[in-house]
Amino acid sequence: MTSPFPHNFLWGGAMAANQAEGAYLEGGKGLTTVDMIPHGKNRLPVKLGQEKRFTLREDEYYPSHQAIDFYHRYKEDIALMAEMGFTVFRTSIAWSRLYPNGDEPMPNEEGIAFYRAVFEECKKYNIEPLVTLCHFDVPMHLVTEYGSWRNRKMVDFFTRYARTCFEAFDGLVKYWLTFNEINIMLHSPFSGAGLVFEEGDNPEQVKYQAAHHELVASALATKIAHKINPHNQVGCMLAGGNFYPYSCKPEDVWMALEKDRENLFFIDVQARGAYPAYAARVFREKGIAIVKEVGDDEILKNTVDFVSFSYYASRCASAEMNAQNTNAANIVKSLRNPHIQVSEWGWGIDPLGLRITMNMMYDRYQKPLFLVENGLGAHDEINAQGEIEDDYRISYLREHIRAMGEAIEDGIPVLGYTTWGCIDLVAASTGEMSKRYGFVYVDRDDAGNGTLDRKRKKSFWWYKKVIASNGADLD
């Protein structure tokens, strides 16, 4: 059987420091935004920046504090990835492991040593690390002292941190992402960018000014990476998925276009090197005035080498969208699509939507794509034989890999594929462990109980076969 995937295609899985590592104060690490986000009813107001949470409370459970203890178990976990045949592993560096407060002049050597050990372990098995610099975790000191990304000083703090990473891990890491799902700051400002709103703020002004600072920081980091090692490949990262018009009514088509632009605004800047023409009117109508420094527009011309993205579901938009009819299951609001099935958590399952999204993005940017998150969150049960028969996950991944193969046949260059949550971890959306994504089961529940023991699921063996056949054998 022939495969549409190129011979050097990178197969693997993805996780994030804040959802996997735990050890939230070990090794000199400082507190981050995600460490303040509890499980339960207060989670959403904190994520949205509506409720200030600058101190931990004793009456709440914080899933990130121990997570799945990757910090102490990384050798075991990377060995499991190697057993599946991974050639790439996407993870993130916790900014506060290297700079506990975020504004120190010198990094924490213990943090550097930890990540060096992780990347060396990957290299032992010929696994390429794909490393995100900022995956939804800003050092809390930068939030309380500076207001996080609303403050221009963050550009210097971030570029110092980025330079430290590029220098410390030179030769171990060549694939880098600057900000994870950068567009999510519009929808979940505290978890996305450490933003908390004050009385009298125009939230749109705050978010887009913070976005400008992140975009400048991302462009500078890209420039630094290329200067330190010309072989470094730097990507941006989008929470992807096209908006479909809910009907062929022209107003619905226009709303879908506007929603796509809102989503793609950041990548338009990072991949093209300038603010898009449509931004001027959007800013004017929202009362936004971006404060730029001299030279910012020149800095933004340092564009990324590739465009990475997550894809879980497509979305629907109409002119009549409102709080009553949008799907509350996802932080990016959309209408339920009556033509597709949904997951247990209400996310639309749309493999063809992945091909549509990939074609749209390549048409728009003409840069290689990298699908760095894709997966199905589901409840997994251990049967009487002690096995986890997650055929629903296999089915989801099979159809999405097929769609990705079709996109490659359409002529799109794709660097690789990393499924989300290759080992069960804390769900960013809900803080649950029961919303499982992995090929490897982790014995832990939503309240933090369990042995943390790892167990291979049926999908583990299926994905191993997929990788071994370079995507040719999906049965």
Characterize the structure shown.
- Keywords: Glycosidase, Hydrolase.
- This is 6-phospho-beta-glucosidase.
- Helix content is 37%, strand content 13%.
- It has helices spanning 17-20, 43-47, 70-84, 95-98, 109-124, 140-146, 153-168, 189-193, 203-228, 250-272, 279-286, 296-299, 351-365, 391-409, 458-468; strands spanning 10-14, 88-92, 128-134, 175-179, 233-239, 243-245, 306-310, 315-317, 341-342, 348-349, 369-373, 414-420, 440-442, 454-456.
- The strands form four sheets. Strands 1-2-3-4-5-7-11-12 form an eight-stranded parallel beta barrel, surrounded by four helices. Strands 6-8 form a two-stranded parallel sheet.
- Strand 11, helix 14 and strand 12 (414-420) form a beta-alpha-beta unit.
- The N and C termini lie close together (12 Å).
Outline of this structure?
This protein is α/β, with parallel strands linked by helices and 475 residues long. The chain contains 15 helices and 14 strands. Helix 3 (70-84) runs parallel beside helix 5 (109-124), helix 7 (153-168) runs parallel beside helix 9 (203-228) and helix 13 (351-365) runs parallel beside helix 14 (391-409).
| Helix content range | 25-40%
What's the pLDDT, averaged over the residues?
Answer: 96
Structural shape: globular
Return residue spans where pLDDT drops below 50 for at least 5 consecutive residues. none
GO cellular component, one term: cytosol
Pfam family, one: Glyco_hydro_1
Family: Belongs to the glycosyl hydrolase 1 family.
Keywords: Glycosidase, Hydrolase
